Amino acid sequence: KEVRRMRICPMAETDCEQTEILMKECFSVPWSVDALKEMFHTKGYCSFLAKEETEVIGYIGMKVVLDEADITNVAVLPAYRKKGIARKLLQQLLDEARQQGIYSIYLEVRDSNAAAITLYKHAGFKEVGKRKNYYEHGFIHIYFPSFCESHQCAMKRVGYLHFLFLFPSDMMVP
Fold it and tell me: What is the largest CA-CA distance in the chain?
């Protein structure tokens, strides 16, 4: 479909039903309306939507704990893919994380999800590990941005599976 008036906006609780429809089209195990609504009653969740007029066509969310965040989901309706929507959602989320003083962001992706891997690599993420059979089929990749190399950062957490995004100190908001 053609994108005419797409906008990125914070998700509101009233968007949960439409967001569930999006997730059902995008994920084998989608979040329910109740799970989505729970985000608004749990500290640390932050989500953005891509909307074409009033239709929810994309979603990105993160869960923040202290100065770390986990990207929970990124989804774009199949008819709207390959139009830069996921990139714009990710950029909005990274901008928000920077504003909140987040230092590191983790995410996960199936190794078969070439489009997502390309998105994260273009955003500066690099693979730091894999976990066999994390998903029902395939491996999981873990990424962090290339600028992490200029910071003496190491990530070792046994039993955890993460993508790591570290903001350089000169990009942080005081």
Answer: 46
Note whether 40 and 61 are within 8 A (CB). no
pLDDT tens-digit map of 35-85: 999 999 999 999 999 999 999 999 999 999 988 888 989 999 999 999 999
Note if 136 is an active site residue: no
Helix (H) or strand (E) holding 59: strand 55-65
The H or E element containing residue 98 is helix 85-99
Which of 55, 108, 143, 149 is the catalytic position?
108
Sign of the CA dihedral running 118, 122, 123, 127? positive
108 labelled catalytic: yes
Supply the angle between the helices 114-122 and 85-99 in degrees, to the nearest 10: 50
* Set 59, 80, 103, 120: catalytic member: 120
Contacts of residue 18, defined as CB under 8 A and 6 or more positions apart, other chains included, come to 55, 56
Looking at per-residue pLDDT, the higher value among 117 and 59 belongs to: 59
pTM of the predicted model as reported, rounded to 2 decimal places = 0.79
